[in-house]
Amino acid sequence: MTLSLQRRFVTPGPGETVEEIAARALPDQDQGAAVDAIRSWNLHIFAMRRPPGLLLGSDVVFVEPPVG
Amino acid sequence: MYDVIVRGGLVVDGSGGPGYLGDVAIQDGKIAAVGRIEGGAHRFVEAEGRVVAPGFIDPHTHFDVQLLWDGAAKPALEHGITCVVPGNCSLSLAPLRAADRQRVIGMFQQIEEMPPAAFTEAFDWTWEDFAGYRAAIEKSLSVNVAPLVGHSVIRLWVMGADAQERAATADEIAAMQVMLRECLDAGAVGLSTSFVDVDENGRPVPSRFAQFEELDALSEVLGEYGRMLQIVPEFYAIDITIARIDQLAELSLKHNIPTTFSPVFDSTATPDNVARTMARVEEQFARGARVWPQMQTRPIDISFSLLRPSLFFARLPRWVRILRQPLEARIAALRDPETVEKMVADLGPDGGERMMGRLVVRGGDGAPAELTGRTLSDIARDRGEAPALALINLSLEHGLDVAFLNANAGHEVTERIGPMLAHPLVHIGASDGGAHLASFSTYGDTGYLFSEFVRKSGALSLEQAVAKITAETADIWGLKDRGRLETGKAADIVIFDAATIGRGEERPAFDMPGDGMRYVRAATGIDTVLVNGQVAYAAGAYSDARAGVICV
Ligand SMILES: [Zn+2]
Prior knowledge:
heterodimer; A: mainly alpha; 3 helices; 2 strands; B: alpha/beta; TIM Barrel; 2 domains; binds zinc ion
């Protein structure tokens, strides 16, 4: 049985920044735009969290917009 | 000569098969025979016209602290619960060094809404390790306990304050594995972790600082024992929940362990979420993974007064800050016009109508009788105030002791919930027993399963409902001796009236240490509860029996 396609995500490495995540997850894109995109796809980290943007090792960080 | 024969009831044995008239004989705490039983017994329990079922298992509780002074986990036992699983959501009371106690008390206070007095007044902290905690509760148990150990406390044990700062080193992860093994050897039924919770300072709990590799390493240890991993996913966002399901499935397959996540609940605001969750769960089960979604039976009702902080205000940081202050300072703040203006402004241009208008004044000591049952929207209109302001002023006029009820805030549409509960892969649980004391009653969900979804809507048969909260739960958790009325199994038995079993009315009780308040429900329709062959509750009264064990 194959799994249906779901939204791709990565989890941050120790001390990894959003810039570093953008560089490894979206290497072919303009990096400024990639960082902005990751922020906009992960409001649970970059808007709702206090302090905003604190990255945790257990986080789900989406690297694409919602599918479908 | 048997010890006990339960005579003449409708035996619903937990298997899901049709009930039949019969007897259950008990010897040495175990079921000795089921069916038509000849022969004598020291004691007969008459069950004519009643259902005789295996004791119910409550797989998601926070009775960790209550069990230290109340081995019956009251009132869970009178609702037919004969086994509870404490230690959920990454929090347990062991392993825990004396120096870290305050920190973990703060987490219980914030996340599970339990008053600090519950942790300081009713017992002595005699332990640090898991075996010591086990010994402390084991002395006087009336219910059985299958305790989880919390990832956050294991992390704290190994890393100290750094547990809430950073990733673990390889050595620290190895030390956590050693500690988890020690806990499992001492009777832990598995490990719990959380991806959402914060402590009383708003800091993410230790488990959230773990890399996936850390959870993988701990799951490897669970695999040595075949024990459970429980998680709290980001239930407010379906995409993240699905990502968590996939992570659990990976761990389940790799280490051959059962996993469970809670809460899963329905909301008419996001009506597709449960269906999407279940679609993914089905796909993962089809691959062989065990990822059990835990669903509560009861609707989400939240009560609060301004006497103490409440989940209700979780999205209003200013309110939380003010309501956390000591009583005098809190009242002073609520009397300060400038502060109140800002608080009301936090609700937006409608003055709180959308968020607070539907609140209803509960009956209670402080509440004026003429307002009981009226909505805040209605009261605010009469007073010529915005709802948020009316809430503050009305509370001030009555020493803050006015309780408000936010009823049916989710998971409340019986026609939708019934089929979800009946789904073969839905694990019924998530009561949060022993937590959220002043917000809602976490007791009686099993009674509600029968009253609402067997009798009223018919979404489940009696036999199905019993199986869901007995044999199926025991199978999911690997509790081999529990959950079935079968020869050789532990004699955990509940005798109830199928026509009247229910969850009872929610009412405040002041029976927590330090006269702390909590909402409870008294069971209806439950005649007798036996734990390991001894009558623990009968005819409305708890017995002195202390037959409960750590049942892992
Ligand atoms: Zn919980």
